[in-house]
Specification:
- The chain has 350 residues and is α/β, with parallel strands linked by helices.
- It contains 12 helices and 12 strands.
- Helix 4 crosses helix 6 and helix 4 packs antiparallel against helix 11.
- It is elongated.
- The chain starts with a strand and ends with a helix.
Length: 350
């Protein structure tokens, strides 16, 4: 019998008291794996350091930065498992060069994130928070001054129509809205089943009543939505971003909201997180702008599924298999990876 696989968990999975912050079976699933022993990083660091990962075969992570320096000199780590789908905080080329696999958990967030966008759409269109405020302030008689905006026949647009975007349009079909999207990386055939018409960026900006940002953050999409794009939108339109803050030029968005270029916004992400206490968005009326601390998709089901996927990935690696959720598939041809994987499998099978 060989040694157990050594798994590390970055500290951001736990609060300051050491309590696991994610409801569901996460740690219990790891406890149930006899072929694994895991340790929790003793402290949270914004950027992972080489000494934190020393001695681990596998690391599960959530929020920290992973840079080239994070993995400098490491010849043991074979995989990193990031809860969620975004991986802009990890230097993927550096991981590949070092022979380290990167895995994500798209199956855990596809439905929850689609629901996030619909939640913003419904709350904004029904003016939910304004009506909640009316009744709490004893202003019942003003109810007729806060009519909502019906959805039937309105245009739901998206920038990005991958797994999450596809699921959002699927869930939105009963609302009888027109569906359009801009995504240069998908075909019309791929989205026909959810009634989406692919259009160019200018069209999705100009025609959407609800414009959802659902693309990943890359150098191509950073500040994809700026002043010029916001001015193209309808003055009655809402912008919803639950993807990544820097996709939208926040200063331009603030200006658009203050000057009435668009009607409102639903934001779960921001250019600076945590958001600065003096950010003008915090002073805007909740009837116009709904904010959330990058937490809208955090549900018991999200985290349960996430850990089921992560532990499944780890089990597959221990069996010598490569899960489909590998981000940097080119790493499999790297001699550094082949050598480490060979040593790892030999060590746990001795």
């Amino acid at each position: 019998m060989g040694r157990k696989a050594k798994v590390g968990l970055t500290r951001d999975f736990f609060d300051e008291s050491g309590k696991f912050i994610m409801p569901g079976p996460g740690l219990k699933l790891l406890d149930a794996m006899p072929e694994v022993e895991y340790e929790i990083f003793p402290e949270f660091r914004r950027e992972v350091t080489p000494e934190q990962i020393e001695g681990f075969d596998i690391v599960c992570t959530f929020r920290p930065l992973w840079t080239k320096q994070s993995i400098a000199g490491n010849d043991r780590l074979i995989s990193i498992h990031r809860g969620g789908v975004g991986y802009e905080r990890l230097d993927v080329p550096a991981l590949t060069e070092a022979g380290i696999m990167l895995f994500i958990t798209p199956g855990a967030v596809r439905r929850p994130m689609a629901v996030v966008y619909l939640t913003f759409i419904l709350a904004l269109s029904m003016r939910l928070l304004a009506k909640d405020r009316l009744i709490r302030q004893g202003r019942w008689g003003e109810q007729y001054h806060y009519q909502g905006y019906g959805l039937v026949g309105r245009t739901l647009g998206a920038i990005g129509v991958g797994n999450i975007g596809h699921e959002m349009f699927k869930l939105a079909r009963p609302f009888e809205m027109k569906h359009i999207a801009y995504d240069p990386y998908v075909t019309q055939e791929a989205v026909a089943d959810v009634g989406v018409k692919l259009v160019d960026l200018d069209t999705v900006l100009a025609e959407s009543d609800f414009l959802c940002i659902i693309c990943p953050l890359t150098e191509e999409t950073r500040h994809l939505i700026g002043e010029k794009e916001l001015r193209r939108m309808k003055p009655t339109a809402f912008l919803i971003n639950a993807a990544r803050g820097p996709i939208v030029d926040e200063a331009a968005l603030i200006k658009a909201l203050e000057e009435g270029w668009i009607r409102g916004a639903g934001l779960d992400v921001f250019e600076q997180e945590p958001i600065s206490p003096d950010n003008p968005l915090l002073k805007m009326d909740c009837d116009k702008v709904i904010l959330s601390p990058h937490a809208m998709a955090q549900t018991d089901q999200t985290f349960s599924t996430m850990w089921e996927i992560i532990t499944g990935q780890i089990s597959a690696i221990i069996r010598g298999e490569i899960p489909e959720t590998l981000v940097n598939r080119e790493v499999l041809e790297r001699p550094e990876f082949k050598a480490k994987m060979k040593r790892f499998l030999e060590a746990i099978r001795e």
